[in-house]
Amino acid sequence: MADAYDRQLLLLGPKRNHLLELWEVQRYGSDSYGDADYVSIYGLPPATWYDKGIRLLGRTAVECTRDQLADAIARDIAKAARSAPKAPGITVIDPFAGSGNTLYWILRHVPQAQGVGFELDQQVFQLTNRNLSIVGLPVEIRHADYLAALTELSVADEELLIAFVAPPWGEALSASAGLDLLETTPPVSDVVDLLTQTFTNPLLFSIQVYERIEPASLAEVRRRFDWSALRIYDFSPKGQNHGLLLGTRGWRP
Ligand SMILES: C[S@@+](CC[C@H](N)C(=O)[O-])C[C@H]1O[C@@H](n2cnc3c(N)ncnc32)[C@H](O)[C@@H]1O
């Protein structure tokens, strides 16, 4: 029997750095989620984005925050941002940009913001830059490690800074304990600390999480915030849903 198009093959196996053909993207969707259109990104189903010349590596097809989820996350971010103190501007930063699809949706729901993303992997960076120019998203993606790039980023003093934090989960997601936010690569806690140490701006953190989260790691991240709220979406079978941890520093909704 042919290999199943699953997380193992695309993220960790031979297809990781392989440019997927349309049938492979659709096969991943149907083999893994019973939906050939599962990897819809930039508001488009795979057949449409592929036809426009948009391409993804195997790893990014698995890692990307697909439309249904990114749209929901972005709506919740926009709602929280509306209750922030009045700011002269808004910057959205995605230190782990991947496909850029989450940035795409956040900027759709917070259209007055300017966006910037960082991506470490050379191939992912090149594809994402090209893909975003095809969809016409005016966002800057820098080929950089988030650590160096964050410390070099300048954001005007009183702007609201929205950070979307979704580093690779790697071994941090286990069937028994759920997602350990201190074991992602890098740990979510380190990213939150770096942002709070680097910027004096009012901050809105948005962290992609999983339905089951290792409780001590959740508490460890939440204690860094002035206010936080956890939301789990209902798009997948019970136990397999993604969610969003919102947190603020310097203000409360
Ligand atoms: C889980 S994916 C993010 C997916 C993204 N939310 C999307 O919608 O496509 C994480 C991305 O972060 C990149 N990455 C990993 N470590 C990084 C680092 N230190 N600095 C910048 N990017 C990094 C990976 O190459 C990968 O593309």
What report would you give on this structure?
The chain has 253 residues and is of the alpha/beta class. It folds into 2 domains: 7-63, no CATH class; 67-249, Rossmann fold (3-Layer(aba) Sandwich). Helix content is 38%, strand content 19%. Strands 3-2-1-4-7-9-8 form a 7-stranded mixed β-sheet, sandwiched between helices. A hairpin with a 3-residue loop joins strand 5 and strand 6 (178-179). The chain is globular and about 55 Å long. The N and C termini lie far apart (54 Å). The model has no long low-confidence stretch (mean pLDDT 96). Bound molecules: S-adenosylmethionine. S-adenosylmethionine is lined by residues 63-65, 95-96, 98-99, 101-102, 118-121, 124, 145-146, 166-168.
What labels would you give this structure?
single chain; 253 residues; alpha/beta; Rossmann fold; 2 domains; seven-stranded mixed sheet; two-stranded antiparallel ribbon; binds S-adenosylmethionine
What shape does the CA trace take?
Answer: globular
- Bin the strand percentage: 15-25%
Q: According to CATH, what is the class of the largest domain?
A: Alpha Beta
The CATH superfamily title of the largest domain: Vaccinia Virus protein VP39
Query: What distance separates the N and C termini?
Result: 54 Å
| Tally of individual domains | 2
